[in-house]
Amino acid sequence: MFVKPFQKSYSLLQLEVLVKRLMASHEQFSEFQDIYKNRMAGYKGEFSTKYPLSFLPKDDYFIFHNLRLFDGSHYFQLDILVLSIHTAIILEVKNMAGTLIFDIPSHQLIQINRDAKKAFQDPLVQVDRQTNQLEKFLLYHSLPKIPVESVVVISSPSTIIKINHEHPASFENKIIHAVRLPQTISSLEKKHNPQITTLNTIAAMSPIFLENHSELKQDILTKSNLSSKVIKKGVICPKCSAIPMSRKRGFWLCLSCKASYQDAHINALKDYVYLFDPYISNQKAREFLMLSSESATRNLLTSLNVPRIGERKGRLYKIGTLIDN
Ligand SMILES: [Zn+2]
What we know:
Blueprint: E1 2-4, H1 10-21, H2 29-47, H3 50-53, E2 62-70, E3 75-83, E4 88-94, E5 99-103, E6 108-113, E7 116-121, H4 123-140, E8 148-154, E9 160-164, E10 175-177, H5 181-191, H6 199-212, H7 220-223, E11 246-248, E12 251-253, E13 260-261, H8 265-275, E14 280-281, H9 282-289, H10 294-303, E15 308-309, E16 316-317
Parallel strand pairs: 1-2, 4-8, 5-9, 8-10
Antiparallel strand pairs: 2-3, 3-4, 5-6, 6-7, 11-12, 12-13, 14-16, 15-16
This protein binds zinc ion.
């Protein structure tokens, strides 16, 4: 079963909002778009393993997407973790096109795509480190000592995998196409027969992984060295993406496509959370939503039914509760 379902990470959602609201005239606009496209491709690659993983018997496997855990000294991030009574399997997913050469002697991954050649850190090195860290995590939390396996998963079936090693066949279950996930998982489990633990124990361990997941939440503007002045204010039209919409008689009206919506400010406030702050004052909301009236802004903020702290002018609305994570 999918215990922690496939979902975009907080930092990817932040990047999505940044790309949507960064002024197109900004000199790094296309740079941020490229970063977003890459990260989104990574997420799509991970998401595409959902289908092959769905062939595993539902009750026997506990699957977690995007776990970020602390091993006692460092944080580590796992694309996918598959727990069973035999083993814990780390899946590191790569969504890369063209030909991938895993050069084992040099510990490099070389990608050849449309005549361009690029070298990357070998994901096998990465999964080895993750394996150690997951073992430390189990120890740190006094959890059963389950053997940890790791697999590099190439999400696109058209990517060609080449392994530069004397015995390439020895990597058969180490670097795979996503379609081979169920078979690979079952052969890795056979290595650890008989079972190490019970389904009850795995079920009891699952919440510990969830509770210890620590989503990376950074201030994206500071991290990206951007000033709040380069962020577009206003409510975005859900239909045609024009910005800003204008508030007319209790509705948001798009000046571009003439569509009107009652609640279009909610998405804008969610954007505010990802970029700035989970709390907002009346004044900040007025500026960001581009409203002129203090009382109209108060009515909008009150209608959100979110927790409030402080009184009068110092009052803050906890709009962070509008987003899921
Ligand atoms: Zn519109």
